[in-house]
Amino acid sequence: MARIRFQSVTKRYANGATAVAGLDLDIADQEFLVLLGPSGCGKSTTLNMIAGLEEISEGVLLFDDQIVNNVPAHKRDVAMVFQSYALYPHMTVFENIAFGLRMRRVGEADLRMRVMQAADKLEITHLLERRPSQLSGGQRQRVALGRAMVREPAVFLMDEPLSNLDASLRISMRAQIRHLHTQMRSTFVYVTHDQAEALTLADRIVVMKDGTIQQIGTPDEIYESPTNVFVASFLGSPTINLLEGALERENGAACFKRGTLTIPLPALQGGARNIVLGLRPEDVGTPGDGPQLHGVVDTAMPSGADQFLGVLVDDAMLFLRVGKDVRVRAGEAISFGLNPERLHVFDRETGRSLRGAA
Ligand SMILES: Nc1ncnc2c1ncn2[C@@H]1O[C@H](COP(=O)(O)OP(=O)(O)OP(=O)(O)O)[C@@H](O)[C@H]1O
Ligand SMILES: [Mg+2]
User: Fold this and answer.
1) Closest-lying ligand 1 atom to the alpha carbon of residue 191
2) Arch. (CATH architecture) of 4-233
3) Least enclosed by CB within 10 Å: which of 29, 177, 222, 341?
């Protein structure tokens, strides 16, 4: 059992750099939580504080109801998979996986059983006598997971464990990690800068920037209702289209204005101001109902199942995802229908969403 709570936690490194500032976070027992954000935003620092590998400068960290600020790493019921895997090169795969158990003086029979079970789950039984140098990247990665698994920890920490793998292996390993979470019933905290990985794995995602939390929510909440421009831009591929313009009122109804473009935004409250309109590439429909978007095709890029269009609307280039049955060529005029409810609206000064709940 482990619920993990950060209460106003700040981490300052010896050189004075603040890596994490005033972090408040409540991770439920057995949750799969993903820390997501760009390089340097404080993800690893946060994970290392849970592991007990970094001291906390200010604030309180709790496991269940116990303050663990001063509990050393080996007394926390935590296992960690590092980005580098950190396998022992001179040991076999078996001994690498068994290492933590030997340190804890687990009996030989129990140790053997736990290593064999983990190897079986990870499908590396045939590799147990090899050394790490004789393994592929994906195999090494599974050994690193195995080493953490056999500990049967209450808290399982992973720092970008898939970043060294090729694209297809990454996708199959995602499924394995998700499966592992179901089997192990531990609390998982997983660090990545890959938004797609976060969206597939997480129960909840914490989006970080410059050592602070930007938003916490389920993958759906984060993707569908980003609280600011940063979160909106960080999730989604290709990224969300952002159009600067003005919020105006015509006959009491709000609309977005930019050049010749006018898009009604019925549900929006508040007075005139400068805004940024966000349109996800997939949020365009066939022309007909609702507000229309007119433009000229600049580029058409097939991408297997669908295609991406670069469309010039006035002076703005939008990237849109459409079915591959839409046959268009560069230079052709094209129109789309928009669903105002799927448009994102942000204040241009603060970057914050102007949508009700957000
Ligand atoms: N030992 C250290 N001493 C001083 N500053 C550090 C130390 N470790 C990290 N930092 C700084 O703290 C900030 C957060 O670093 P952290 O490693 O947590 O980022 P990250 O989100 O894990 O990034 P990445 O995706 O690149 O791994 C960065 O600005 C980094 O330069
Ligand atoms: Mg890191």
Assistant:
1) 22
2) 3-Layer(aba) Sandwich (3.40)
3) 341
